[in-house]
Structures are given as structure tokens and as C-alpha cells.
From TrEMBL:
It comes from the Eukaryota. Pfam families: DAO. This is FAD dependent oxidoreductase. Residues 33-410 form the FAD dependent oxidoreductase domain. PANTHER family: FAD DEPENDENT OXIDOREDUCTASE DOMAIN-CONTAINING PROTEIN, SARCOSINE DEHYDROGENASE-RELATED. InterPro entries: FAD-dep_OxRdtase (IPR006076), FAD/NAD-bd_sf (IPR036188). GO terms for cellular component: cytoplasm.
């Protein structure tokens, strides 16, 4: 984890920010009341709410590399609540009631994030507007329609979703030549590192201790002494009474019991500078989910209130080929050094040239076009939803991880929910879907009778 990382566009923008390598104290503290492992949006929010719930307790946040240099600092910049698209998969896995609650929770998470940014005037390039899901062939459009109707019939709220089934009208709305339908609802894009940095700076004003370049290696119970746990790091040991795993894809490297339960996987994001024919008044004004055959997906963030660079994430055909390669070479599961992979970029380029009228015929000038791509590590959950709660058999050790590539649409409710649990509130009081709760029964079911993890087929970013 210590070297070779590709720099996301977000991290490229903040190279002179001292928070990147911040250490509140020159030396690593020998003890703390609570140690939080991870400084992404989850760990930073847990620290924020921990301060409010336990103002007298000392908190130490550990980060293995630069501040917020994991998944939060590497995503495609969306906070897009799933409002219908994965309903059928969740319904098959958990039942209709829980599937509807997952959609409701993602909307509540988005509202909490936007509310925080606006209330605190956070400088993070926030955009609020219509995100549009667009199927590009008749079969995918039919599947999308069926999923939407199933969700609606199950009692899912759809009044806020604008549905366009006429292909000609869908082409006008989306600006994609082969659009078959459009599903539009409110979502956001943002600069995720800057949002997380704002929250952490507020934390630091209240005596949070942040230690970057401090990799947590393992946690064990203390054989004796006033503290319950020893957190072993590359810079020495820390004793504490409470540990929070906000380490997402890296969790199993610290606690091997999560091996196969939370699985790391590199995911690519492409930065594209549009040509002049798609700039200015002709620039994209919405974010998108492009629904493709065989579960492929493009996530598009055009940063329309910022610099207009267009971010392409998701699971296109090239990403799926990378997934298959990593499955054969699992030692690369945490390798976020992949950059400018033509095997992925060529599919983004082909999509743009096919769907964006005039792009293919425009001569790209210096500084335009497919500039760069980087990798980030997704924490795939074995059953497709995060793990939140106290780790079974390990009282005092808590987790909020395994966000399955959808952390920005979950953490603004998941992190405060975890802290409420830590403060003794029951699960029923925290407002999260029941299937997010980490229980001994859930772990046993996922590991199966032979102790080997039993993964569902709900891949991150998978189609409908």
C-alpha cells in the first residue's frame, strides 16, 4: 500500500495542501480512547460524530498513506442515490421491504450530504441537478422498465423520477444518439477529497489526532493493562479501548476474518476534456448512468459547475476484462497504481464517438481528449451491502465498511448510525436498512458451512 499509487484527478488538484501528510503530533501517541482506521469519508465522519457523542474521549485517526487517498479520494465524483435500478437484485436477495428501504436510505444519505455542504458553505464543487439513467438498446430498456414497475408496485416512491419512454424524446433529453428511454432524478457531483478535508479540518480544531503514513497492520487484545486493545502499526503500537474499522477494501489485511467477506478490486476512472464542439453552451449539463447490455455501465460526471472535465467511471467492457484479470492475479486486488489503461479507455472512447454527435469528426487540439485515467479500490461486500456494527466476538471493535462501490451514497447516514450504536442505541433507532447490520448470523451465512465465503453475484456497478 505504501507506493505506486496513481494520482486521481482530485488528488492532483491538492498537491500543496498540508493536510495530505498531516500529523497532529510529531510522534505517534502511545494510547487513545478510540482509534479509527482510515481517513476517507467514513473515518472522517465517524470522527466528527464521535466528537459529538463522546466529547471527553480522545480520538486517533490512522491513515496508511496520504489523507483521504483511498476510495473516497479516487471515485468518479458522484453522490447518486440509487432510486430504482438495483431494486430487483436487492428484492431477490433481501425481500421487497428491505430493498425499498435501501433506496430510501440512499436518498436520505444524498439529502444529508447536500444539506451539510450547503449549511457549512463547503468549497467542494457541489452540483445538484438531474442525473439521467439511459438504456441504449431495446432489451436493456425493457429490463429497466420492468425493474422500475416492480419497484413502483412494491411501494417504492417514484413521484420524483421523470420517466421518458419515447426514444426520440429520450435522445433530445440525454443527447445520446441511441437513447431508448430516460429516468431522471436529483443527484449530485462534487470534489470528494475537498468535502472530506473540510470535515477533517473541523475535527482537528476539536483535538482529533490525525496521523498519516501510519499503516495499521493488526489489532489484538491486550493480555493485561488498563486498555483493551493494541493496534500495531508500521510506526509502533497504540493501546486503546475502542477500534473502528473505516478501512473498506483494506479491512481483511488488518482483520483476516473478513477475507472473502470484503474483497478489494481496482476500478478505473477516465478524465476526458471535451472538444470545443462539446464545450461552453454545448457542454453536458447532467450526470448520467448509461445502461448497456450484459450488465455494463458507464457513470458520467461532467463537472458542470466546475471545470467541465468529464469523468467516466462504471463497469464498461474494459473494466470487466480488468476484473477478470485481477481475479486470476489477486495480489493486484489492492493495486491502485493502474493508470491510463488503454484496455479500458478504448471503450470509453468508442462510446463517446458513437453517442456524442460530432465528437468523432472534431479534430482534438492540445489539451483536449482522453487525458488520463486512474484506479481506486472498491470494497466488494460478499452480499452486496455494507457491514455496520460491532464485530461479533470482538466487543469494542466496530466496523463501517464494504460499501460495494456505493460509499458516497451511504456514508453520510452509515457513519453517524455506527456512532449511535457505539453510544448504546439499538439498531431500530438508527434508521438504516436491517440488512446493513453486522451480526454473527450474517457472517456465518456468508462464510457457509465449510467456512469459505459465499459471494453473491451482485458485482459493483453491475447493470440492472
Amino acid at each position: 500500500m505504501q507506493g505506486g499509487q496513481s494520482l486521481s484527478y482530485w488528488l492532483q488538484q491538492v498537491r500543496c495542501d498540508p493536510l495530505l501528510d498531516h500529523r497532529t503530533t510529531p510522534d505517534l501517541p502511545k494510547e487513545a480512547d478510540t482509534v479509527i482506521i482510515g481517513s476517507g469519508i467514513t473515518g472522517t465522519l465517524v470522527a466528527k460524530h464521535h466528537l459529538q457523542a463522546f466529547p471527553s474521549k480522545s480520538v486517533l485517526v490512522l491513515e496508511a498513506r496520504e489523507f483521504c487517498s483511498g476510495a473516497t479520494g479516487r471515485n468518479a465524483g458522484h453522490c447518486k442515490p440509487d432510486q430504482w435500478r438495483h431494486y430487483t437484485k436487492f428484492e431477490k436477495a433481501f425481500g421487497a421491504e428491505q430493498a425499498v428501504k435501501i433506496m430510501q436510505n440512499e436518498k436520505a444519505t444524498w439529502e444529508a450530504l447536500v444539506g451539510y455542504v450547503r449549511a457549512n458553505n463547503v468549497d467542494c464543487d457541489l452540483w445538484v441537478g438531474d442525473t439521467i439513467d439511459v438504456p441504449l438498446d431495446d432489451e436493456v430498456a425493457k429490463i429497466a422498465e420492468d425493474v422500475f414497475e416492480n419497484y413502483k408496485n412494491a411501494g417504492g416512491k417514484v413521484d420524483h423520477i421523470k420517466v421518458t419512454k419515447d426514444p426520440a424524446e429520450a435522445v433530445k433529453i440525454s443527447r445520446f444518439k441511441n437513447a431508448k428511454a430516460c429516468y431522471a432524478w436529483s443527484a449530485s457531483t462534487l470534489q470528494p477529497w475537498k468535502l472530506t478535508a473540510h470535515i477533517m479540518r473541523e475535527n482537528l480544531k476539536q483535538d482529533i489526532n490525525l496521523q498519516t503514513y501510519t499503516a495499521a497492520e493488526s489489532v489484538e487484545e491486550t493480555p493485561s493493562g488498563p486498555r483493551k486493545f493494541i493496534v500495531h502499526t508500521n510506526r509502533g503500537d497504540i493501546t486503546c479501548d475502542t477500534v473502528v474499522y473505516a478501512s473498506n477494501a483494506y479491512t481483511s489485511a488488518i482483520d483476516p476474518s473478513f477475507k472473502g467477506i470484503i474483497t478489494p478490486k481496482p476500478h478505473m476512472c477516465n478524465k476526458v476534456i471535451p472538444p470545443r464542439s462539446w464545450s461552453g453552451s454545448k457542454a453536458l449539463r447532467n450526470s448520467y448512468g448509461v445502461l448497456l447490455p450484459n450488465g455494463a455501465l458507464f457513470s458520467i460526471n461532467p463537472r458542470c459547475t466546475a471545470d467541465g472535465a468529464v469523468m467516466f467511471g462504471g463497469s464498461n467492457t474494459g473494466q470487466k476484462a480488468l476484473d477478470e484479470w485481477v481475479e486470476k492475479h489477486p495480489e493486484h486486488g489492492t493495486n491502485d497504481g493502474f493508470a491510463s489503461l488503454e484496455s479500458v479507455t478504448k471503450h470509453v472512447r468508442a462510446f463517446v464517438e458513437e453517442e456524442f454527435e460530432g465528437w468523432k469528426d472534431t479534430e482534438l487540439g492540445p489539451g483536449e481528449g482522453f487525458e488520463y485515467s486512474w484506479s481506486g479500490i472498491i470494497g466488494l461486500s460478499a452480499d452486496g451491502v455494507p457491514f455496520i456494527g460491532e464485530i461479533p466476538g470482538k466487543p469494542g471493535q466496530w466496523i463501517c465498511a464494504g460499501h460495494h462501490g456505493h460509499g458516497m451514497a451511504r456514508t453520510f447516514t452509515a457513519a453517524p448510525g455506527l456512532v449511535k450504536l457505539m453510544n448504546g442505541e439499538p439498531w431500530s433507532a438508527i434508521g438504516l436498512p436491517d440488512v446493513y447490520q453486522l451480526t454473527a448470523e450474517r457472517l456465518k451465512r456468508l462464510k457457509g458451512s465449510d467456512g469459505a465465503p459465499k459471494l453473491m453475484t451482485m458485482k459493483a456497478g453491475a447493470g440492472l
